[in-house]
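User: My collaborator sent over this chain with a note saying "see what the structure looks like." That's all I know about it. Can you take a look?
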Amino acid sequence: MGMVQSRPIQPERGKVSELGWYLLKRGANTAGIPEYWNTGRLYSSREAIAQRGLELELARQVSEAGGWNLVKPIFYNSSRQLPPVTPQGKIIQNYLKKAELAALRQAATTDPFRPGLSQKILNYRAGFFEERIPYQVNDYVAYRTCGEGSAEINMVVILILCPAQATKKYWQSRISIYSKIVKSEEPEIETKVEVLAVFKNIEQANVFGPRIQAAGLTIVMVNQVKRYLQDLLTGMPG
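Assistant: Without extra context I'll predict from the sequence alone. Here is the result:
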């Protein structure tokens, strides 16, 4: 019917190559995703197919961790431009706003004469905490709410799935984006957000590991994400 077409995934192997199925223009329109069909995405490379497998595995890990919701990256382009605040940025904003307010209230109750606390409260009321928020973030964000049907977010984890062709420049850009929320000078009254650098294997992680860890990000393999999220609930990540 002209909706899909088979193509060899490993054309250099000739007739013994595995075949992949790709949407044609008519198929993409029928599926309701016309933006899928374009010259650049019609035929996927082996690397792209492998990366898609990692994306599916990451989503599975989060789903099986239990109670976590996942917001995935969105493909932005000239017809769908990056907004001032992405869905992920909004989640982080809501979480930090409530978490920091709760921390300040707790500090005001237990240690009302803490040096600098009054100024921290004034800064919060003035909205200075929002300077830490990466509003245009477009990575995976896993979050939990206070209960079924609740919109109040009580835990957020950012997951950066390493691209197949990642470079030092790519990771430096991610470090710059998240540097203000992964570390805290006063953790009792300034909320941190867990940011995970997710790799397919230890060999890939070792290429970028030292710089990432020094910046405060946590390195995990994609098959460890489920366990890490579960351990966060017991206060023992790792």
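A starting point for your reply to your collaborator: Residues 54-233 form one domain.
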